[in-house]
Write a structure and sequence with these properties.
- The chain is an alpha+beta fold and 420 residues long.
- The protein folds into 2 domains: 2-214, Metalloenzyme, LuxS/M16 peptidase-like (Cytochrome Bc1 Complex, Chain A, domain 1), CATH 3.30.830.10; 234-419, 2-Layer Sandwich (Cytochrome Bc1 Complex, Chain A, domain 1).
- The protein has helices at residues 2-8, 53-60, 70-79, 104-116, 122-140, 143-155, 169-174, 177-187, 203-214, 261-272, 278-285, 317-333, 338-354, 359-373, 379-387, 391-402, and strands spanning 10-15, 21-26, 32-39, 83-88, 93-100, 193-199, 234-239, 245-252, 292-299, 304-312, 408-413.
- The chain has a 6-stranded mixed sheet, with helices on both faces. A 5-stranded mixed sheet has the order 7-11-8-10-9, with helices on both faces.
- Strand 4 and strand 5 form a beta hairpin.
- Helix 2 (53-60) crosses helix 8, helix 10 crosses helix 13 (338-354) and helix 11 (278-285) runs antiparallel to helix 12.
- It is globular and about 60 Å long.
- The termini are far apart.
């Protein structure tokens, strides 16, 4: 099935007259369509005193336009029978839909309307401000999410990438309707907008929709202020009455478009992504020191993070992290065995092949590639890059990222500094 889908996939890229890029991936056999409007800007693009503005905007667009009120938008979302969603990250804001193909026109009309014509009613601003403050409280109650959220301000303190996506309670309380209007005029315009779709859709249909709704928007050539962050190593302990200690160790990673990104994928799998990974086997399976233990990476235009997360009882933190650091040293010192590397390549290649069976995954992939690389890669191109990685490439990257011991360590829970 995967091979049949891949063989029949057609990807077409074009732009409308004002420069809005469109990427359409037609996948036969599917009855539904996923589409998204991507704004290539996010939390790193807002002033420090307006922290949380992009996230606030993402919430407020659903609260009324010149054509629909908040209640009407909510009803229409359910009437469409599919899924309408949105998210804000540090570099991207996204508004997406997944509907059966016959409802694409109506769903696109809704998403385009809220993206372009939001009216930001004053009463809705105050209501949604309270919703976001409750969202912040829910993060406080989720230890793994909370500690991950606090890693960025610790690692990249004073840099736009170090801001919380939600902002702080103080900044959210200060945001105004004028702030939203200014953000919209600066960033919800070409060249910051990209439209993608995949599934049961063809380019002429998508181009018609994009031209109709986005073709007359004036370009705003406001440049993004992008400067790479300086990393700050060190230990921070946040004491909280929990059953477990949640600990993150992070080092510098690599930017998203780095030519070594495929080495990073394989390094992550071998070290801590999966049940056969070194961290999982040596910390959980052989010693029982943790239930949750894994490695992770995040990538941005000009920076990246690579790290390890573990949750365990405070009294076993020392042997847990001694084992973890030993594994970091090993992978930086000696190339992985041939079988281990082959297993990791199989995981990556098979996941890439299976991604064609998920419209949501493909929608994100083609947008990510368009935004960061300026093109959509074929499956064969992606597999070629993965298969070209050698064992010593993985070791070399591990040595580069982990060998300096320039770690930020963040611990949350009933734990003292001398336990970490």
């Amino acid at each position: 099935m995967v091979e049949a889908i891949h063989a029949a996939v057609e990807v077409i890229e074009t732009t409308v007259v004002n420069g809005v890029p469109i990427v359409c991936e037609t996948i036969p056999f599917f009855k539904s369509t996923s589409f998204a409007i991507w704004v290539f800007a996010g939390a790193r693009d807002e002033p420090e005193e307006k922290s949380g503005l992009f996230h606030f905007m993402e919430h407020l667009v659903f609260k009324g336009t010149a054509n629909r009120d908040a209640g009407g938008i909510a009803i229409e979302i359910d009437e469409l029978g599919g899924l309408i969603n949105a998210f804000t990250s540090r570099e991207i804001t996204c508004y997406s839909g997944h509907v059966i193909a016959q409802r694409l026109d109506r769903a696109f009309d809704l998403i385009a309307d809220i993206t372009l014509n939001s009216s930001f009613p004053d009463d809705e601003l105050e209501l949604e401000r309270q919703v976001i403050l409750e969202e912040m409280r829910s993060i406080e109650d989720n230890p793994s999410e909370f500690v991950y959220d606090r890693l960025y301000p610790r690692r990249w303190a004073g840099h736009p990438l170090g801001k919380l996506i939600t902002g702080s309670p103080e900044t959210v309380k200060s945001l105004t309707r004028d702030d939203l209007i200014s953000l919209k005029s600066n960033f919800y315009t070409p060249p910051h907008i990209v439209v993608t779709a995949c599934g049961s859709v063809k380019m002429p249909e998508l181009e018609r929709l994009v031209t109709n709704y986005f073709g007359d928007i004036k370009r705003n050539e406001k440049k993004r202020d992008l400067k790479a962050p300086a990393s700050k190593a060190g230990l921070e302990v946040i004491q909280k009455p929990l059953e477990q200690a949640h600990v993150l160790l992070a080092a510098d990673g690599i930017p998203v478009a780095s030519p070594r990104r495929h080495e990073l994928l394989l390094l992550n799998i071998i070290l801590g992504d999966g049940v056969s990974s070194r961290l999982f086997q040596n910390i959980r399976e052989k010693q029982g020191l943790a239930y949750s233990i894994y490695s992770f990476f995040d990538q941005y235009i000009d920076a990246g993070l690579f790290g390890v997360y573990a949750a365990s009882s405070p009294d076993v933190l020392r042997p847990l992290w001694e084992t973890a650091l030993t594994e970091l040293d090993k992978i930086a010192d000696k190339p992985p065995e041939a079988k281990e590397l082959a297993r990791a390549k199989t995981q990556v290649s098979d996941n890439l092949k299976m991604s064609f069976e998920s419209l949501g995954v493909r929608l994100s992939q083609i947008a990510h590639q368009t935004l960061y690389y300026g093109k959509v890669f074929t499956l064969d191109e992606m597999l070629e890059h993965v298969n070209a990685v050698k064992a010593d490439d993985v070791r070399g990257l591990a040595e580069e990222l982990l060998g300096r011991k320039n770690f930020t360590v963040l611990a949350l829970g009933p734990v003292e500094e001398d336990q970490v």
